[in-house]
Design a protein that fits this description.
Length: 201
């Protein structure tokens, strides 16, 4: 199967984690799938891959003719690397062909940054992926959630977005979608330009 790369939405499976800040990567992946299927009903097809480490779809994104794998790890955040490592080995994908969509405490809600490589900054999903790929040289879409004013980070990231934030989240999902489309169609530099210039209205 000819796959150009893997797009990974990070999050935790289960109803109790839906729409939480830590699941913003899942939310972007879902938005990407919905948009691809609106563009063409045949743009995405689900894949069944052995042990259930992740949900997977083979998709054409935007106007691209190439197929990309979109996955959502079902291993819980701390073990995300098991899913990503399996997918990369199964489809013979190099780290440079991986795009990880993840929440980012060091950016406010409404900002998105695209980069390759770097540290994990305490993000357990990124840490696990680095361990299983044996490399930091994968692409990351850092999607801001901001830092808590009070309380612990662990409680903050597992809380849902409040009503005032919902409209902003919808715009962020669209901004992230445009960044992914830029990467797929035009490469890293265009993805950086598109995401780094994104701002809420």
């Amino acid at each position: 199967m000819n796959i150009s790369g893997v797009i990974v939405g990070l999050g935790n499976p289960g109803k109790e984690y839906e729409n939480t800040r830590h699941n913003l990567g899942f939310m972007v992946a879902d938005h990407l799938l919905e948009d691809a299927q609106r563009f063409s009903p045949d743009a995405c097809s689900p894949l069944s891959i052995g042990k259930k480490k992740y949900d997977a779809w083979k998709c054409r994104i935007g106007t691209s003719r190439n197929f990309w794998l979109i996955i959502k790890p079902m291993t819980y955040m701390n073990l995300s690397g098991e899913a990503v490592g399996h997918a990369c080995k199964y489809f013979d994908i190099a780290p440079e062909q991986v795009v990880v969509l993840h929440d980012e405490l060091d950016l406010p809600l409404g900002r998105i940054k695209f980069k390759i490589g770097g540290g994990h900054a305490g993000h357990n999903g990124l840490r696990s992926i680095e361990q299983h790929l044996g490399s930091r040289n994968f692409n990351r879409m850092r999607i801001g959630i901001g830092k808590p004013e009070h309380g612990t980070v662990s409680n903050y990231v597992l809380n849902r977005f409040n009503k005032a934030e919902q409209a902003e989240v919808e715009m962020v999902l669209e901004g992230a979608l445009k960044g992914i489309e830029a990467f797929v169609s035009s490469g890293f530099d265009e993805a950086v330009k598109t995401t780094n210039s994104f701002k809420l209205l």
